Amino acid sequence: MALTGLESNDLELIILGGKGGVGKTSCAIATALALSATHKTLLISTDPAHSLSDSLEQEIGFNIVEIKGTQKLSAIEVIAEEALSKFISGHQEQLKKLLETSTNLDNEDIEQMLTLSIPGIDEVMSFKTIIDLIEEGKFEKYVVDTAPTGHALRLISSPKMLDDWIKVAAKMRWKYRYMITSFSGSYHMDEVDTLLLNLKKTVKRIENLLRDKKRCEFIPVCIPEAMAIMETKRLLSDLDQTGIVPKQIIVNNVMESDESDFCKRRKQGQAPYLQQINQLFSDLNRVEVPMFAEEVKGIETLNRLKRSLFEQNEIKN
Ligand SMILES: Nc1ncnc2c1ncn2[C@@H]1O[C@H](COP(=O)(O)OP(=O)(O)OP(=O)(O)O)[C@@H](O)[C@H]1O
Ligand SMILES: [Mg+2]
To answer: Whose CA is nearest to atom 12 of ligand 1?
Structure first.
């Protein structure tokens, strides 16, 4: 089978995730390449390993660049720490004021706290950057390449983390508001309240998008090997808890040739795992991609991978 439904105009966000080294980056680029034939597409990497640049053999960074040799494809790297430090420096005053008015910390402690990373907040800021890009509306499709499994899950559960953080901050503010109102009889919303309100809106925007099956699709990438299958099972069950149900799965690195003894043995070795994949993920559209003789690097090989993903190839049960 081939990947289906991705060209639907409603579908904006496509996220690829899976175990380390299974081909997420290669498949994300190939998917973006295919979609860019009909839709203005932005390929987004949230992996700090700069793998898009390596694979596309072109420098890609924190600013959007057009991909050479393509018509409607651009790419950007959204790195969590950079997204977070951009957020902190852009809201330095409000964040300082939030801590000043809601805690007993002195100035030095506050400065120190602003340099500390709250666990998960950097992923939230990655996702905030992604949703800001989507809402800017310069592209029709956004394909996200993630770092190995845990990272994709953190990225997806990040709105919940931000929501919990906002709740704590709002509680602290509520005490402050109560104090001000008791002294002066009234309270007016200030820039800190506006910041919290805007962050709350961000959480809602991300959650709405992630849960909207028409606008967002998560595609797991797997290979026919024991560890990868186990990790995919875990990934799917964790995704299920966040209300995300994938429709299709990419099974990469499938050995097709049996011309040499080596290939024959690899193929035989993969057979039981392919069977297991077909049984475990029988409700998903399984898209097999052959193992190429050479590494997937540069537009030409990426285009070959694209054809494997998007042109019908019968799955053997
Ligand atoms: N079908 C394939 N045939 C041959 N080589 C492949 C195939 N798919 C991917 N590769 C190669 O396997 C390696 C890992 O692929 P890729 O970087 O896409 O995986 P990844 O899941 O993104 O890895 P990471 O978890 O490190 O981000 C790369 O060298 C790539 O060229
Ligand atoms: Mg990668």
So the answer is: 23
pTM: 0.89
Pocket of ligand 1 (CB under 6 A): 20-26, 47, 51, 147-148, 252-253, 289, 291-292, 295-297
Give the integer Cα–Cα distance in Å for 270 and 304: 22
| CA 22 to centroid of ligand 1, rounded, Å | 6
Instruction: Return the best residue to mutate from 15, 26, 301 for the ligand 1 pocket (most ligand atoms within 8 A of CB).
Output: 26
Q: Which atom of ligand 1 is nearest to the CA of 148?
A: 25
Which CATH number is 13-82+121-167+210-310's, of 2.20.25.530, 3.40.1190.20, 3.40.50.300, 3.40.50.10490? Answer: 3.40.50.300
| pLDDT at residue number 317 | 36
Q: Is the CB of residue 127 less than 8 Å from the CB of residue 27?
A: no
Single out the residue of 51, 37, 43 nearest to residue 67, CA to CA.
Answer: 43
Average pLDDT along the chain: 87
Beta strands in 94-154 (DSSP E): 141-145
- Whether 104 has a pLDDT exceeding 70, the answer reads no
DSSP sequence for 74-108? EEEE--HHHHHHHHHHHTHHHHHHHHHHHS---HH
Q: Could you write out the DSSP letters of every residue in 274-286?
A: HHHHHHHTTTSEE
Say which residue, 47 or 78, is predicted with more confidence: 78
What span, in angstroms and rounded, lies between the C-alpha atoms of 125 and 165? 13
For residues 233 and 281, the answer to whether their CB atoms sit within 8 Å is no
- Give the integer Cα–Cα distance in Å for 289 and 3: 11
How buried is residue 3: exposed, middle or buried, by Cβ count under 10 Å (0-12/13-18/19+)? Answer: buried
- pLDDT 10s digits, 114-171: 666 666 677 778 888 899 999 999 999 999 999 887 778 877 887 887 788 788 778 7
pLDDT, residue 112, reads 67
